[in-house]
Structures are given as structure tokens and as C-alpha cells.
Amino acid sequence: MAKDAKYVVRSSQAAQAEVPEPAVPALRPQEPDEKGLDFARAWVEFPDPADEEQVFRCDLTWLTSRWNCVFGSGCQGIKAGRAEDGCCTLGAHFSDEDDEKRVAGHVARLTPDIWQYHDVGTRSGWVSEDEDGERQTRPYKGSCIFQNRPGFAGGVGCSLHILALKEGREPLETKPDVCWQLPVRRTYEWIDRPDDTRVLQVSIGEYDRRGWGPGGHDLHWWCTSATSAHGAGEPVYVSYRPELIELMGKAGYDRLVELCEERLRSQLPLLAPHPADPVR
């Protein structure tokens, strides 16, 4: 299964001085169409059919929601005034060396007709390091170097995504881990049971503002809780099938589908629906 990736956005205060972070970051005012972070959720836990030492804990509220990516059709972007960047403003941190190596293999096939900054990237590099020395895709002119800007003939948006579609691949094959995993978040926790057994709990849920770290509350806008991004014809567990299979394995995903379908069949109105979803 795919490795986990994580975006971390530092708060502006932490970037300026070495000061202790507050235990609970102050929440920024929500954008008009964003719902709050805390609301009732319906979770389900089930054994991993492919690994008896794992259990999945899945957020059915999120996975049966009608979220969909609205890049280029209503996305406000994570930085004010740069809606055209979507969530690509900061560039993408690699989860590990293998992630970077995999992406490099696909970058080698990018051509100037689908990558706006092909000449810059091939001449002076497409990888940079942040202040902590962690490697990431290079920010260039205010956004990720792979982000084609409005007006580019080869298409607006991620050139690695465009490459995948051009070659008939899933975008998860060509993009950094963090890019294709968003806005699904996978976390791990070892659970000690009363009978002295131990199991690895794999949680699959929503990558909300908190998932970005303390600075997530400073994002200009974030789509997972925005009503304008909740109007898809298919629920997330269907539209994100390739990504969820990569994160859970085929057997785990198939069981998730059964449980999601059971939820949608048996509960009308749904218990604990996503607050950003249209009323059903």
C-alpha cells in the first residue's frame, strides 16, 4: 500500500520566532461557505481482510459525502488572491526517497507542451528544501513548479496530472504521495486490547484543516468543509476508488464499499451527514 504523506503548514508566529505553540491553535474566521470542524461523525471499524493484525477505522460521514475537487470551477485556493493555484501554492513534500524517485521517473517524460516550466525545471532543478531540510517540489513564481498557470496552451493545473491523463494512467501513479492522497487522510495507532493482544488501527478519514498542522487554520480556504465543494453525483468512496484501493488494499476497499452502501441504503435521513453536503 502507499506510504503516508503529510502537509505541515507552520503558523506565521512560529515562523518568526521560536515560541511555544498554544495547546489549541486559535481558529481563524471561517470563509462564508465553510462549515465548522467539529460535528457528529459516523465511524465504522472492521478487520482488514488481508491482514489479521490490522483493523480499519473509517469515517463514513466523510466517505459517503458528496465532496469533489472543484479546482478551476469554484476553488478559492489556500492563499488569498491565488485561486488558480488551488492547494498547490506551497509545493509538495516528498514522503520519502522512494516517493521522490518515483516522481522523478515521470518528470523525465514531461515535455514542454504539457509542462509550462519545463525549461526552468530541467535547467535549474524542480526539487528544493524547506527550512528544515525536507525535500519538496520547488516553489516557483508563487506556486509549485509543476503547476501550469492560466493561459498555458497545454492545460491549466498540475503537469504531472495532465501527463497521467494523457498516458491513460491514474494520477496517483505520477504525482507525489501527498498530492494524490489529499483530501483523504490515513493515520496509524497501535491499540492495546484488554486481553493483552495488540492490533494496528488504520484510520481513513477527512484531511481537514487540522491535518495541515497549526498553520492549517491560517489557510485562506479549504475545500473539505466548503459547501461549494459538496455537490458531486457520486460519494467519495466511489469517486476516490483508485486512491482508496492504494491506501487500503483491494480487499479492505471492497469491505468498505459494502459498509458504505449499507449506510446509504438503511439510513434516510442519514445519521451524522457531512454538514457541507446538500440536504437530502
Features:
280 residues; alpha+beta; 2 domains; four-stranded mixed sheet; two-stranded antiparallel sheet; 9 helices; globular
Per-chain topology:
Elements: H1 12-16, E1 43-48, E2 51-59, H2 60-63, H3 97-107, H4 118-124, E3 127-129, E4 135-137, E5 139-140, E6 143-144, E7 147-148, E8 157-158, H5 159-167, H6 177-181, E9 184-192, E10 198-206, H7 236-239, H8 241-248, H9 250-266
Parallel strand pairs: 2-10
Antiparallel strand pairs: 1-2, 3-4, 5-6, 7-8, 9-10
Helix pairs in contact: 8-9
Fold and architecture overview:
- The chain has 280 residues and is of the alpha+beta class.
- It folds into 2 domains: 39-76 and 182-280, no CATH class; 88-169, no CATH class.
- Helix content is 25%, strand content 17%.
- It has helices at 12-16, 60-63, 97-107, 118-124, 159-167, 177-181, 236-239, 241-248, 250-266, and strands spanning 43-48, 51-59, 127-129, 135-137, 139-140, 143-144, 147-148, 157-158, 184-192, 198-206.
- The strands form 4 sheets. A 4-stranded mixed beta sheet has the order 1-2-10-9.
- Helix 8 crosses helix 9.
- The two termini are 34 Å apart.
- The model is unreliable at 7-30 (pLDDT under 50).
